TrEMBL record:
Domain (Electron transfer flavoprotein alpha/beta-subunit N-terminal) ranges: 22-213
InterPro entries the record matches: ETF_a/b_N (IPR014730), ETF_b (IPR012255), ETF_beta_N (IPR033948), Rossmann-like_a/b/a_fold (IPR014729)
Gene behind this protein: acrB
SMART domains: ETF
Gene3D superfamilies: HUPs
Pfam families given in the database record: ETF
MF annotations from Gene Ontology: electron transfer activity
Source organism: Blautia luti
UniProt cross-references to PANTHER family, sorted A to Z: ELECTRON TRANSFER FLAVOPROTEIN BETA-SUBUNIT, PROTEIN FIXA
Name of protein: Electron transfer flavoprotein small subunit
Amino acid sequence: MKIVVCMKQVPATSKVDIDPETGAMKRMSGETRTNPYDLFALETALSIREKTGGTVTVLTMGPPQAEEMIRDAYTMGADEGVILSDRKFAGADVLATSYALAQGIQVIGGADLIICGRQTTDGDTAQVGPAIAEHLTIPHAAWVAEIMDVNEKNIQVRQDLVSVSQVSEIPYPCLLTIDKDTCVPRLPSYLLKKATSDRPVRILSFEDMPDQDLSRYGLIGSPTSVEKMFAPEESEKQVYLEGTAKEKADRLVALLTGKKII
């Protein structure tokens, strides 16, 4: 089975630079980390590969520094890594991002199973995975909480959808978005780190895409735009409540109510 895992580097801190013209984050500013949800996606892919055989390819879109994330995935067991990296991809919204990733999947020969994290911690839209499936015209299941069965023809999953739990059986090729806490991501292996130190990471640019219509990619191909983006203000103010237990409880309730937290 050929499995593709879509992953992303996200800011590891709120201290990032914002492009004053586009309102988008400058991806090469500040520290980054692998999107936490994507670690569950990668672990799911590796576990399925252990049962069915095949390969796991990690695909991402971003600046060249994303190679660091790919190499971390190698130390967990991924077989191949591909980065879509081109200035023409910059500033992409959900539609343009998902389209570029769908094109990239076609370039590497397609996949039997595509797995994404439920969402990213920077965008939080939870829409890129389903949008990739729509671009590729394949079935998908979002918010997957459990892989129930895997066989040669289809995969059976349980989805937790807010107020209901649904079991779906989906034929290949298909796409899943994996919720957090569905599994425990394995730790990186030092032996794999040494064994994969020379393993190449494939870089794809706009020129490699099957569709050369520039209006489908990056900022130009994004029908939505960011009006304003800013880092949240840091606040370390502490409030101490005194009095009896009941008095402190009453003051706490009043404080939380005033801040519209409850």
